[in-house]
């Protein structure tokens, strides 16, 4: 019992028992084990006590019957006349019942056996008896009646003695069946909590509108679920304010930048005008990226929406080619010739691939080509001939406003963070590796769309 108590105290520290259902099951197993041990013992004790009491009442009734057969004669002599119906029960040949009738001094007056008064009966453990005292014609008489429980005709005592071996064991399978039933009941009871946890796993920066279901939630857990939903309401409000601030700030910055660009044109110093134009372009690019981030944060992706990854990549290559040519660089589209359909939003995909291509053009060497390769497995790879990415920076480059000097440090460090955000929204992966001949390769891998899903999407449109 001490070991069980020690284990019960430590079970809460085990990872397995952090589960509510396993805590309930464990405690129930302990309860079942205790009941399985105590219940047969209690039943045995109650049954034995009841049978013992029945024996005593029966023996007392027999003693009273015998007392009625004691009669005082006129000379004061006591006589005892056992009726014929009882002679067989108290015969030595039968040997199950016996009686002794004694006076107040303990002298034996009448007896069913012929042994001497000092002779002792069998072991007291196998004898059940009772005694009554009567006053007959001024003389006190004590009638003792006993039953030999070891006699072959005593069936009740055999049942009691064999209770554990033949009957008591049945309580164990019954309790095990009860335990299995309870486990099923517990699992059904906590099913709404599992459903709520599945819903909670879908909550993220892009899906702050999801709330935990309150239907069928146990009354004890409902306040917690309600409090979580209220906390999510407050978080969604905070996200909304933050997104709106970013979008408003970006919109408000566009007008001053446009005015500033116009005023720069009036400057006479050509070199200063060109330098200021470059700064204005950098600031305009930052504002545009901030607007992209704000739009991405509010965009909710339809799980059934599909897009042609090759068509999106071709559009990006066509739109960014003038930028590459102006910097004495080139960009080419490679890979699959047929459409590559994936789960995703075409506008978001275009922004991610555009940022990768723009980043590659920025860092690739002059007179080299940036390759955009679309794979039939739903992947798109962008390769450049730049200095590559240091091993320690491969995760840092996707953080917002993080910049490292890959020969230059222009830009705000938002382009690759937009790529990561698009990948996260599409349940896609983004990875970067250095090429053996120099340069870096960024890989976006999306989930291909099934032909059946594509057919349903086309049917809807």
Automatic annotation (TrEMBL):
<dbReference type="GO" id="GO:0000155">
    <property type="term" value="F:phosphorelay sensor kinase activity"/>
</dbReference>
<protein>
    <recommendedName>
        <fullName>histidine kinase</fullName>
        <ecNumber>2.7.13.3</ecNumber>
    </recommendedName>
</protein>
<dbReference type="Pfam" id="PF00512">
    <property type="entry name" value="HisKA"/>
</dbReference>
<dbReference type="InterPro" id="IPR050428">
    <property type="entry name" value="TCS_sensor_his_kinase"/>
</dbReference>
<dbReference type="Pfam" id="PF08521">
    <property type="entry name" value="2CSK_N"/>
</dbReference>
<keyword id="KW-0418">Kinase</keyword>
<keyword id="KW-0472">Membrane</keyword>
<feature type="domain" description="HAMP">
    <location>
        <begin position="187"/>
        <end position="240"/>
    </location>
</feature>
<keyword id="KW-1133">Transmembrane helix</keyword>
<keyword id="KW-0547">Nucleotide-binding</keyword>
<dbReference type="InterPro" id="IPR003594">
    <property type="entry name" value="HATPase_dom"/>
</dbReference>
<dbReference type="InterPro" id="IPR004358">
    <property type="entry name" value="Sig_transdc_His_kin-like_C"/>
</dbReference>
<keyword id="KW-0902">Two-component regulatory system</keyword>
<dbReference type="InterPro" id="IPR036890">
    <property type="entry name" value="HATPase_C_sf"/>
</dbReference>
<dbReference type="InterPro" id="IPR003661">
    <property type="entry name" value="HisK_dim/P_dom"/>
</dbReference>
<feature type="domain" description="Histidine kinase">
    <location>
        <begin position="248"/>
        <end position="450"/>
    </location>
</feature>
<keyword id="KW-0812">Transmembrane</keyword>
<feature type="transmembrane region" description="Helical">
    <location>
        <begin position="20"/>
        <end position="47"/>
    </location>
</feature>
<dbReference type="InterPro" id="IPR013727">
    <property type="entry name" value="2CSK_N"/>
</dbReference>
<dbReference type="InterPro" id="IPR036097">
    <property type="entry name" value="HisK_dim/P_sf"/>
</dbReference>
<dbReference type="InterPro" id="IPR005467">
    <property type="entry name" value="His_kinase_dom"/>
</dbReference>
<dbReference type="Pfam" id="PF02518">
    <property type="entry name" value="HATPase_c"/>
</dbReference>
<feature type="transmembrane region" description="Helical">
    <location>
        <begin position="167"/>
        <end position="186"/>
    </location>
</feature>
<dbReference type="GO" id="GO:0005886">
    <property type="term" value="C:plasma membrane"/>
</dbReference>
<keyword id="KW-0597">Phosphoprotein</keyword>
<dbReference type="GO" id="GO:0005524">
    <property type="term" value="F:ATP binding"/>
</dbReference>
<dbReference type="InterPro" id="IPR003660">
    <property type="entry name" value="HAMP_dom"/>
</dbReference>
<keyword id="KW-0067">ATP-binding</keyword>
<keyword id="KW-0808">Transferase</keyword>
């Amino acid at each position: 019992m001490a070991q069980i108590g020690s284990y019960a105290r430590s079970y809460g520290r085990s990872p397995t028992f952090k589960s509510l259902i396993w805590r309930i099951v464990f405690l129930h197993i302990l309860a079942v084990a205790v009941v399985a041990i105590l219940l047969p013992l209690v039943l045995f004790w109650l049954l034995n006590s009841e049978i013992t009491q029945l024996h005593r009442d029966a023996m007392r009734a027999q003693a009273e019957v015998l007392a009625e057969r004691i009669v005082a004669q006129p000379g004061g002599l006591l006589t005892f006349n056992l009726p014929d119906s009882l002679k067989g029960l108290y015969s030595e040949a039968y040997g199950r019942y016996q009686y002794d009738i004694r006076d107040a001094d303990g002298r034996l007056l009448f007896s069913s056996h012929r042994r001497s008064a000092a002779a002792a009966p069998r072991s007291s453990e196998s004898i059940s008896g009772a005694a009554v005292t009567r006053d007959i014609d001024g003389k006190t008489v004590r009638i003792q009646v006993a039953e030999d429980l070891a006699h072959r005709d005593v069936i009740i005592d055999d049942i009691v003695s064999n209770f554990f071996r033949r009957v008591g064991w049945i309580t164990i399978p019954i309790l095990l069946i009860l335990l299995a039933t309870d486990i099923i009941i517990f699992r059904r009871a906590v099913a709404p909590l599992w459903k709520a946890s599945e819903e909670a796993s879908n909550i993220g920066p892009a899906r702050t509108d999801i709330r935990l279901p309150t239907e069928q939630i146990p009354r004890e857990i409902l306040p917690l679920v309600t409090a979580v939903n209220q906390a999510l309401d407050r978080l969604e409000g905070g996200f909304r304010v933050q997104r709106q601030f970013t979008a408003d700030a970006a919109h408000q910055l566009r007008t001053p930048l446009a005015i500033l660009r116009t005023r720069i044109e009036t400057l006479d110093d050509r070199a200063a005008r060109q330098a200021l134009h470059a700064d204005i372009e950098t600031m305009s690019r930052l504002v545009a990226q901030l607007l992209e981030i704000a739009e991405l944060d509010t965009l909710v992706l339809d799980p059934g929406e599909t897009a042609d990854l090759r068509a999106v990549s071709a559009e990006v290559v066509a739109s960014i080619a003038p930028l590459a040519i102006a910097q004495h660089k080139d960009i080419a589209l490679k890979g699959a010739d047929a459409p590559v359909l994936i789960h995703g939003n075409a506008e978001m995909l275009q922004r991610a691939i555009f940022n990768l291509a723009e980043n590659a053009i920025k860092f690739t060497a002059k007179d080299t080509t940036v390759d955009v390769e679309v794979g039939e497995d739903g992947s798109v790879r962008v390769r450049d001939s730049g200095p590559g990415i240091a091993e320690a920076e491969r995760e840092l480059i996707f953080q917002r406003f993080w910049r490292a000097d890959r020969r230059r440090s222009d830009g705000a460090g938002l382009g690759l963070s937009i790529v990561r955000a698009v990948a996260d929204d599409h349940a896609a992966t983004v990875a970067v590796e250095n090429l053996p001949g120099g340069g870096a390769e960024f890989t976006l891998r999306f989930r291909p769309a099934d032909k059946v899903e594509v057919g349903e999407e086309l049917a809807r449109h």
